[in-house]
Design a protein that fits this description.
The structure holds 2 protein chains of 2 kinds.
Chain A lengths: L6 E10 L2 E11 L4 E5 L6 H8 L7 E6 L2 E2 L6 H12 L2 E4 L11 H13 L3 H14 L15 H13 L5 E5 L7 H16 L3 E5 L3 H7 L2 E6 L2 E6 L1 H6 L4 H11 L4
Parallel strand pairs in A: 3-8, 3-9, 6-7, 7-8
Antiparallel strand pairs in A: 1-2, 1-4, 4-5, 9-10
Helix pairs in contact in A: 3-4, 3-5, 4-5, 5-6
Chain B lengths: L11 H35 L2 H16 L2 H11 L9 H26 L3 H9 L4 H16 L1 H14 L11 H12 L2 H32 L2
Helix pairs in contact in B: 1-2, 1-4, 1-7, 1-8, 1-9, 3-4, 4-6, 4-7, 5-6, 7-9, 8-9
Classes of the chains: A alpha/beta, B mainly alpha.
Chain lengths: 255, 218
């Protein structure tokens, strides 16, 4: 039971008409592992990430969270109930934050726990305080998203996802929309999560961060995993020509 | 015979009572039209087709026929099928549903304008479709359409004069009662117009306050 992967993607494939965006991808992630997915835009990395909580359903293949199949074929109504309970275990952080602009930071964090876990207002407030403390934004608890910087918004979005106590966190280019000087504060929060052994799957363009934090790196191109391995190998000594090309272009100016 | 406004103060009580009824019917119908508008908008966008199509017919009936006719139908017509409503209730229902249909159109556009990321943000937390609509999408949609809905509410206030024809003693009917006693239509219609104007100022001030509060909460 200890070596059952927390996330198990089996032969994932997806196409839009004749365009194949994912071609037979399999990926196992163990509890506590941190996996980076890198690759050029249009390579399918975000689609793969979004398939994990069935936000972008696969055309074929299976996604498992522990012992539950995420993308189970069910009648609409049963599927709704099923996917909603599955998603409570999978936190997701988006490029554009997707905070709720009409709610305060506190309510952004407590909305889902209050509605889905039946906790009291006091417990919810306690939860908001805990999570905001973690991301260093306790003093912003009564602010609205429009009053925050991009980096702060993303940290609140992370706190919101963590408040559901997920088993896995997915990051979809979490720092791509941020001004360069705001990237670090979000990276720090993600590093801290890594130190707490949160299982994370991170789609990123930040090779330096991937190298520092991740246990494994997947390089995707044109819907397939071209190469995967420990960051030292992928970044310093990639075997595949496409990986080399991509890294050469990407690391220019970063190192 | 010249104009003589000195007859008006003697009927101040009648006009004031009428004004209070106008305010009561406007506010009641406004609340009905607001929440009705939200419900209609959600039906129009998300309900299964078997509900959506009859609803469209119903919406078309309310948009495509005169409000006056609708009031007659609700007040006089429904009695024939055993629904005998007090005039005030019939007036609130008529005005409220009529403007709910207009509000629904506006709220629909507000719902469609909510960013797709908002749905994704809510759904990935595990919220259901309905919870997402109720807690995330509709509140934002309603906030973004408060100004045009406010305009509808001002139109509603003015159209509330129509319920005088089914015997609600609101401002217009009250001024007519004063006229029938004094034969001074000009003075009392002007007096009634002044009352509408003042009520309108109050309504606009209220709407502005709501708009400002909503802007703060964004």
């Amino acid at each position: 039971m200890s070596d059952r992967p927390i996330i198990d993607i089996r032969h994932a494939a997806k196409s839009y008409g004749s365009l194949e965006v994912l071609k037979d991808i399999s990926l196992q992630v163990q509890t506590g592992q941190i996996v980076a997915i890198i690759g050029p835009s249009g390579s399918g990395k975000s689609t793969l990430l979004r398939a994990i909580n069935d936000l972008d359903p696969l055309s074929s293949g299976e996604v498992w969270l522990d012992d539950i199949q995420v993308n189970k074929a069910l009648p609409t109504r049963q599927y709704e109930t099923h996917i909603n309970s599955v998603r409570q275990n999978i936190g997701m952080v988006f490029q554009h934050f997707n905070l709720f602009p009409h709610l305060s930071v506190r309510d952004n964090i407590t909305l889902a726990p209050k509605m889905l876990k039946g906790i009291s207002k006091a417990e919810a407030d306690q939860l908001a305080v805990e999570q905001l403390n973690k991301v260093g934004l306790l003093d912003r608890i009564d602010y609205y998203p429009s009053q925050l910087s991009g980096g702060q918004k993303q940290r609140v979005a992370i706190a919101r996802a963590l408040a559901m106590k997920p088993k896995v966190m997915l990051f979809d280019e979490a720092t791509s929309a941020l001004d360069p000087e705001l990237v670090e504060e979000v990276n720090l929060v993600m590093k801290q999560l890594a130190e707490e052994h949160m299982t994370m799957i991170i789609v990123t363009h930040e090779m330096g961060f991937a190298q520092d934090v991740c246990d494994r790196v997947l390089f995707m191109d044109q819907g397939v995993v071209v190469e995967e391995g420990p960051p030292d190998v992928i970044f310093r000594n990639p075997a595949n020509e496409r990986t080399k090309n991509f890294l050469r272009k990407h690391l220019k100016g970063q190192h | 015979m010249g104009l003589d406004f000195s007859v008006v103060p003697a009927f101040a009580g009648v006009l004031l009572t009428g004004a209070l009824w106008t305010i009561a019917i406007t506010l009641s119908a406004a609340v009905l039209s607001f929440f009705g508008g939200i419900v209609f908008a959600v039906i129009a966008l998300y309900a299964p087709l078997v509900i959506r199509y009859p609803f469209r017919l119903f919406a078309w009936l309310f948009m495509g026929t005169p409000l006056l006719l609708q009031l007659f139908l609700i007040y006089f017509g429904l009695i024939q099928i055993g629904i005998d409503l007090p005039a005030f209730v019939a007036g609130v229902i008529g005005l409220g549903l009529h403007f709910a249909v207009y509000n629904s159109d506006i709220i629909q556009s507000g719902i469609l304008a909510v960013d797709k990321g908002q749905y994704e943000g809510a759904r990935t937390l595990g919220l259901s479709r309905i919870q997402t609509l109720r807690k995330v999408v509709v509140p934002q949609a309603v906030r973004s359409v408060v100004p045009p809905i406010g305009n509808n509410m001002i139109a509603l206030l003015k159209d509330s004069a129509l319920v005088s024809v089914i015997g609600v003693a609101e401002l217009t009917l009250s001024s007519q009662m004063a006229i029938s006693r004094t034969f001074r239509p000009f003075e009392f219609y002007v007096a009634a117009a002044a009352c509408y104007y003042v009520i309108n100022l109050g309504l606009e001030a209220g709407l502005r306050r709501i708009e400002r509060r909503i802007q703060l909460a964004r």
